[in-house]
Design a protein that fits this description.
Oligomer: single chain
Strand order of the largest sheet: 3-11-5-9-8
Helix content: under 10%
Length: 199
């Protein structure tokens, strides 16, 4: 599923790479995430979805929808992701959870950005731009992840986010997770890892 590199120029979410992120099994906020080693995966380690910054006519066309098969009973799903070009506080992507015989549960992704919400109906922010000038935040199910060079934010500082989705029906198998983006807005999603907490 990975379609872009993290550590090379013109990978990740634009012309700059995301450096100093480990590979393999990493424990982040008490959750084990398995990050792909791009050296062992044809230079790809992250799934980036289409946005207005990366239209279909760009050098490498990006998908606006990807389906991840699950087929297991899960209590919760954890995402390690980041975003770039956060502007208006509007939904820019969604995680859709499909279970047997149940309506789709949809979780909109809204970047906090720097301005007010687009409308009173806008869901609360649950991710923020990866660039350090943006104000980072935490909530009950959203935590920012500081990426530094050997623990030194003065040498390098970027941000990812971990997000928890608690399954309202863990007794029913979760068949798939569909990741969708709104290709009409500039905010761009990069998904590094997904972890299932089995029921």
């Amino acid at each position: 599923m990975a379609n872009r590199a993290l550590r090379r120029p013109h990978g990740w979410l634009g012309h700059l790479p995301l450096l100093h992120v480990g590979t393999g099994l990493l424990r982040i906020h008490g959750v084990d995430f398995d990050l792909i080693d791009e050296r062992a995966n044809r230079g790809r380690s992250v799934l980036v979805l289409r946005s207005s910054r990366f239209p279909p006519t760009s050098r490498r066309s990006l998908p606006d929808e990807v389906t991840l098969a699950v087929g297991r009973k899960v209590r919760a799903v954890y995402f390690l992701h980041g975003c770039g070009y956060a502007g208006e506080r509007v939904p820019f992507a969604w995680y859709d959870f499909r279970s047997e015989g149940r309506p789709v549960a949809s979780l909109p992704l809204v970047a906090r950005g720097v301005g007010p919400a687009h409308s009173p109906d806008t869901p609360p922010a649950n991710i923020q731009d990866w660039w350090p000038e943006f104000p980072q935040f935490n909530t009950d199910n959203v935590r920012h992840v500081t990426v530094t060079e050997h623990g030194d934010p003065f040498a390098y500082e970027r941000y990812l986010y971990s997000l928890e989705w608690v399954n309202p029906a863990p007794e029913v198998p979760l068949t798939e997770i569909r990741v969708r983006s709104n290709p009409m807005v500039p905010t761009t999603l990069g998904l590094l890892a997904v972890t299932l907490l089995l029921a």
